[in-house]
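This week, work through this protein record:
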Amino acid sequence: MALCSIFCPRIPVRFRPKPISPFLSKPLFPLSYRVYSSLPPTSSTKDELGSVSIGFLGMGIMGSPMAQNLLKAGCDVTVWNRTKSKCDPLVGLGAKYKSSPEEVTATCDLTFAMLADPESAIDVACGKNGAVSGISSGKGYVDVSTVDAASSILISKQIKDTGALFLEAPVSGSKKPAEDGQLIFLTAGDKLLYEKAAPFLDIMGKSRFYLGDVGNGAAMKLVVNMIMGSMMASFAEGILLSQKVGLDPNVLVEVVSQGAINAPMYSLKGPSMIKSVYPTAFPLKHQQKDMRLALGLAESVSQSTPIAAAANELYKVAKSYGLSDEDFSAVMEALKAARSQQS
């Protein structure tokens, strides 16, 4: 594609996508349904929630507010993070602290993990002093990280080999939905654990889907984020084009927000993008990681994804400009750079 030909030569070798091994041997999503959380916890419900000890691994942009919502609901929460200082605000709210994932799973009935990428998720679960070392029969491990299905299946096997139950539950939503308890959980794995974890998922989110076998939740999340990343790249193109032809981009955002193509992302991100300000709700490096994993998923089933592939090149260029930790809407800066090179 022409877009790829513009950007590909500028991509450093270290940012090129890593191949992902095919993992799917049967159709995705054999079972799917949705349950909505509706009523806030009552005092009796809070007592029941508090009787289950909850572990939470990973106190990043998403993990910290998710754990905080569990604490606010009256849950007994134990936290861990590689950088201990990130746990301090939660400890101040009543959480306990353990110095390793192993200690968390050894002392908790149900452990959630929200890690940055597949490598971190595997290391925290299966590495030295990892969750697998402390977990045992009768306990549960819910990985809410965004990883590829192969990584999720690997973690699931090692958790289940201990006799414990495993559920993958990646979330759709970013920082604000995490803070507001409005996440969407895309779950797959042990149905019994899904039912046991449901009250806690409902505290952290507004809806949950059960998708059957492990791998399906991961695949669904990657498809969703692939669409989101492509939409953002196209939105950035639209803003820059409107400016180029003399239109007011603020009016563009308003027009889009009232039409059939409206998405909350546009009205939320548009005003700051116009000002070239990108407050981080979902880091660009994570969006590009998800695009890379989604393209690997597509490759494993021989599905063509040219639009997502082109968008991925833009995110890689943005990373090469040092924008990894900015919000993923900063992908617009890659388009600005291309414009300046052409003029």
Remarks:
- The chain has a mean pLDDT of 89.
- The radius of gyration is 21 Å.
- The longest strand covers residues 183-189.
